[in-house]
Amino acid sequence: MWVQVISDWKGTQSLDTIGLPPQTWPAKAVTMVGHVITRLIRRYLVGRQQEFAFRAARELRLPHLTETDLYLHIPFCQNLCPYCPYNRIPYQEDLVGPYTDAMLAEIDMYGEQLGRVKLTSIYIGGGTPTTLIEELGAILGRVRERFDVAGPICIETNPGDVTPLTVRKLQDYSVSMISVGVQSFDERYLRLIGRRYGAQDITRAIELAVGAGLDSVNLDLMFALPGQPLRDLEADLRKAIASGANQLTTYPLFTFPYTSVGAFLKLKKVMTCPHK
Ligand SMILES: C[S@@+](CC[C@H](N)C(=O)[O-])C[C@H]1O[C@@H](n2cnc3c(N)ncnc32)[C@H](O)[C@@H]1O
Ligand code: SF4
């Protein structure tokens, strides 16, 4: 790994002997100058005495813990929303295996370092974690092998992903809390923000989740949507309260320069919403 090679380099070896691809002499000179500048910057930042080196993650030394919470991130989504700032990528079947293997390896790595610590909660977020509904069995199984799971397991999903099969699998995995990204019950706003399900899908998803008897069903609602008057937000809130879900989370639409929202002109109207 590149970072490892650099942190192991002591300045006396030939660069060709430490695993870098063969270089021409001008390129070697540039690399050397790079090392000198890096060393000077390190010394400036941390002083003469202290160690400052990038290390591969497997070398991390974690503090001693007896209990902690665990967050698992699954970045895949069937449809990428233009406003979303989170770490997410389009679902691709050929990435599922490598991503799952990487997660299992990372769980092992933390397990080796921390020992069988108590996990007071597990939160599986995304992306849309239910895109890996099959793989979640192996992932949570590995977590249980390595740690003492002693708290609730919560997962994020969206209405299009909530099917009888998904809910049954989640229950098989002992997931007790589900968070459904409804955003709005109003199809005009769903279309406007690029969500690909309708009001009926939402009703069906909530009925399934509530009917399954999970400990908690949370609904995410977004507000301050483009052109959204207060009465439309109130209508969404009433529907959410009447739905049978027992928790509600609301987010004002926020924008980040690095999302495609900047190019999505309609969403810019949110800055100049004239309604009260
Ligand atoms: C990481 S998403 C996961 C849920 C699921 N992927 C979905 O979208 O339904 C968690 C929540 O973040 C909120 N969210 C995402 N992007 C947002 C934005 N730009 N402004 C406000 N809320 C946002 C949505 O309410 C969403 O349900
Ligand atoms: S809002 Fe949810 S579904 Fe949309 S891209 Fe972000 S994580 Fe994926």
Your description of this structure?
The chain is α/β, with parallel strands linked by helices and 276 residues long. The chain has two domains: 2-46; 64-272, Alpha-Beta Barrel (TIM Barrel). 39% of the residues lie in helices and 18% in strands. The protein contains nine helices and nine strands. Strands 1, 4, 5, 6, 7, 8 and 9 form a seven-stranded parallel beta sheet that branches. A two-stranded parallel ribbon has the order 2-3. Strand 6, helix 5 and strand 7 form a beta-alpha-beta unit. Helix 3 (93-114) packs parallel to helix 4. The longest helix is centred in the N-terminal third of the chain and has 22 residues, at 25-46. Iron/sulfur cluster binds next to loops.
Which key features would you list for this structure?
276 residues; alpha/beta; TIM Barrel; 7-stranded parallel sheet; 39% helix; globular; disordered C terminus; binds S-adenosylmethionine; binds iron/sulfur cluster
